[in-house]
Amino acid sequence: MGRQWGSAMRAAEQAGCVVSASRAGQPEAGPWSCSGVILSRSPGLVLCHGGIFAPFLRAGREVLTAAGAVFLPGDSCSDDLRLHVQWAPAAAGPLGGVERGRPGLCTPQCAGLEPSPPASYRRRLQQPPLPAELLLLLSCPAFWAHFARLFGDETAEQWRFASVAPDDEVPEDEEEDQLRLLGWFALLGVRLGQEEAEEERGPAVAVAPLGAVSKGAPLLVCGSPFGAFCPDIFLNTLSRGVLSNVAGPLLLTDARCLPGTEGGGVFTARPAGTLVALVAAPLCWKSREWVGLTLLCAAAPLLRAVRAALGRLFPSTAALAAHLPLEVGVPWGLPLREPGPPWAAAAVLVECGSVWGSGVAVAPRLVVTCRHVSPREAARVLVHSTPLKSVAVWGRVVFATQETCPYDIAVVSLEEDLEDVPIPVPAEHFHEGEAVSVVGFGVFGQACGPSVTSGILSAVVQVDGTPVMLQTTCAVHGGSSGGPLFSNRSGNLLGCSAPEGSEGERLNWEERDLASGPFSATNPLCDLRHSHQ
């Protein structure tokens, strides 16, 4: 992941853990497990997903959907609940050796990090599971409000957040439970002996304020796939992506996550290892298709809810609020927000009758989209810009390729200028393997603005030395058609998203493949652009 991520990776791994729950005297029941974030090592405080506690609720799962249910005290679960937390030691020896006789697994040194001692392998330390107790269960009301707006109403039946494929049979009540538990998290107290408490003093976790991370910013997810299953291999596995979209405290990332990573931490590169969010749902399905996005709950409002809940409980638990991590910039005076990539605002929403898709402004009054979004020349089109969501400009299709043409391109001439929309620079060179991003209104349409997904330029198809088609690993969805494809390095416009082939066949959305027409290869489009300039 390169030197940029070295410090963030170490901070993420130091903050990651796995939580398991079981019934006393019933080893055959469970265990249930998920990932978690270490808020403090001394005293031991862990924030994890609340889904694993559903079987232990005294009043049943329905208590989570009761009116006004924001938090539940630790005694809401039955007395036979047994909790254990496993994490990596706060610090390893200089050669990564095993300390105190604990077994370890030899793993290759991560490439691209700072120079390390001359050893081809390092030991991944095994920390014995530590007993823990449930302090409280809580949810974020703002998360639920935005979740209902995006995923509720008439589209609710199209969405699933289960950890199994849509074709697998899941009882209806179990699926309802998974949805009910989606935004619930748990605060745990880890029981440490005196010797362990002295050894487990790790660095404090910093928390990013809500809205401090821009759309398109790189993120690092640290979780344990499959929970407590084989932690010597899966404990604190890393996955990288970008912040794809934002709706209040509800965040989306294209970082790949697996079942068991619920409750895992999501971190930024700058400041290194700053906690942004926790994983709420690692797998999302829409209309029986994997979306390729992970649902997150922002950490800052979640921790505010923790503080509020602790203050309303017993005085002994209220004192724990002083050990919760602080938000970046409070009181350190660090910048709360870095400007996002300028090209993230270049995408526009294109409506032609009942059909809608994405597009990109290539001149103040010229928009490029896909032919299947605006199929007829002279058709009236309504274009919505990203920065000013309430502003819409009418235009007409002045050029569209034939259905038999391999290029799925249409050009819209607008009646007015698009204000405050950046005009990208077309790329002249294409390099396989370079980092790229796609911006489009797939999945949610205009509900929460365009989504950003990241990947690499996996193939450049050429004819007679001229690039004619690009292929990327970015996740694309229905509604992304016509959205711009950008180079992360230069910010130049590479092409337009065309998730369908020339014969109308989809190009493996599940495998995150995307066909895109190079902008520089469409000569009529270039002529129109120059005439408007």
UniProtKB/TrEMBL annotation:
<keyword id="KW-0378">Hydrolase</keyword>
<comment type="function">
    <text>Peroxisomal protease that mediates both the removal of the leader peptide from proteins containing a PTS2 target sequence and processes several PTS1-containing proteins. Catalyzes the processing of PTS1-proteins involved in the peroxisomal beta-oxidation of fatty acids.</text>
</comment>
<dbReference type="GO" id="GO:0004252">
    <property type="term" value="F:serine-type endopeptidase activity"/>
</dbReference>
<keyword id="KW-0720">Serine protease</keyword>
<dbReference type="GO" id="GO:0031998">
    <property type="term" value="P:regulation of fatty acid beta-oxidation"/>
</dbReference>
<keyword id="KW-0576">Peroxisome</keyword>
<dbReference type="InterPro" id="IPR039245">
    <property type="entry name" value="TYSND1/DEG15"/>
</dbReference>
<protein>
    <recommendedName>
        <fullName>Peroxisomal leader peptide-processing protease</fullName>
        <ecNumber>3.4.21.-</ecNumber>
    </recommendedName>
</protein>
<dbReference type="GO" id="GO:0005777">
    <property type="term" value="C:peroxisome"/>
</dbReference>
<dbReference type="Pfam" id="PF13365">
    <property type="entry name" value="Trypsin_2"/>
</dbReference>
<dbReference type="GO" id="GO:0016485">
    <property type="term" value="P:protein processing"/>
</dbReference>
<keyword id="KW-0645">Protease</keyword>
<dbReference type="InterPro" id="IPR009003">
    <property type="entry name" value="Peptidase_S1_PA"/>
</dbReference>
<comment type="similarity">
    <text>Belongs to the peptidase S1B family.</text>
</comment>
